[in-house]
Every structure is written in C-alpha cells, then in structure tokens.
Amino acid sequence: MSTDTERQNGTMKIIQGVAVMAVLAGSIALQAQTPAPAENTPTADEIVAKHIEAIGGKAAIGQVKSMTIESSTSVMGNDAPTVTTVSDGVGYKNETDFNGTKIVQCYNDKGGWMVNPMAGAADPTPMPEDQYNQGKGQIYIGGPLYDYAAKGSKIELIGKEGPSYKIKLTSKEGTETTFLIDSTSYMITTVLAKGKMQDQDVDITSKFSDYRKTDVGYMVPYAIDIDLGQFQLSIAVKKVELNKTIDPAVFEMPKPAEAPKPAI
Description:
Layout: H1 3-19, H2 44-54, H3 57-63, E1 66-75, E2 78-87, E3 91-98, E4 101-108, E5 112-116, E6 121-126, H4 129-135, E7 154-161, E8 164-170, E9 176-182, E10 188-197, E11 200-213, E12 219-227, E13 232-242
C-alpha cells in the first residue's frame, strides 16, 4: 500500500472514530481525584439550569425539532465536508465525504450502524453496543445535560477547574461524561472523554467555542477542536438549518446491496 493510501486510511479511521463525538456524548473515566466543591459553590442542578438558560432556555430548545449542520473537518492536512442530521429523539446521522468516499455513522432510538469503505466495510454494519451507548445521546436536541433526569441520567458536581465547573453525567447504561462549564457564560467549553480507536483506548479532549444564536435563540458552537493525543482535528460549522422535514427512514440501516446475478 502506498504512503498516500496509508495516510488516507489513517485519516478516515480518525474521522470515523471521532465523528460521533463530536461530540457531545463520549465515554469518560477520570483517573485523578478532584477536590470536593466549596460550601458556597452552586449545586450541580443549579449549574446545569444556568447552562440550559445560556444556550437559549427550554422555550428555545423546545422549538427545535430537527437540525441539519454543514461543516468541514480538518485532519492531517485534509479537509472533509460533513453533513450532520438530527431529528429530536429519533435519530442522528453524520456523513463525511473524503475524496469521494462517504463515511457514515448513524444512531436511532434502537441502535446504531456505520459505513466505512476505507476500512473495508462498504456495506452498512451494526454498531457495537458500547459504541452505541457512548453516542446515542446525540439524537436529542439540547445535548445530554438537557432534561437529563427524564433520560435516566444522573449528574454530579465534582469540582472546579480554573473558571469552569466540572459536571459528571452518568447515563442509565453507566456511561460517564464530564463537562467543563464556564462559571461566567455557563457555556460548555470542554468535554473530557475516554473512547476507542482501532481497538485502543484513547483520551479525548473536545473544546467548543464560537457559539452563535440560531433564529429561535438556540445556541450552537461553530468551532470544535478535538485532541486525541497523537492526532488533532478541527470542525468548522458552515451552515445550520432548523426544522427541516426529515424522513425517519434515513436513520434506519439500509440493507446491503445485492450481488449482481451471473449472466446466463
């Protein structure tokens, strides 16, 4: 295999491995103990409530039934156009086009699937359960902290890092995610996570910035920088459309294409 081909394959595995993450619902396991919060520190629920208000409040979030996001993913000197489709509570689909090869990761309320021709998986393949549990929170508008209790999750304030509060969210499946929320703006600035790439454990640090208000007042980060240790990538959002009609069928795993019948 040529050096260019190896580089492209490596790039695609990185994009596939972090497209979900993007982010907002990875698995996290912090190794260091964090000091207990001071008595005058607000509670986890108070911090999350202020965060929800900062991104638009329940009224604005409730108006968003779907989002279509066009962005560009830059990794290892390559730019790959990406389209992300979210239908609230129904599904999440991320499609990245790398030099004509489409990489797909998709979640719905029952399971997940993916397509990665660069890794030899040209047909849709069911997603492993642990990977599905790590990313399925992306099917909800507002992020995993929004209405967390109704989703069966729990939150805990585990301390403060610089100007940010550290909130740990544990899903009903036991997946843990830690969010750093700025104590002034109450926007999420960083998500710390552990995930897997090519069957190896990796530490993932995702930073969010350049929040912009949509027409209904819901705030969306337009810049996401992801650090996986050996690799870094940046996602730049180009366009956000709200409440487009989305057929739920787009989140269902298509059947593999049938092999052509031999000529008689």
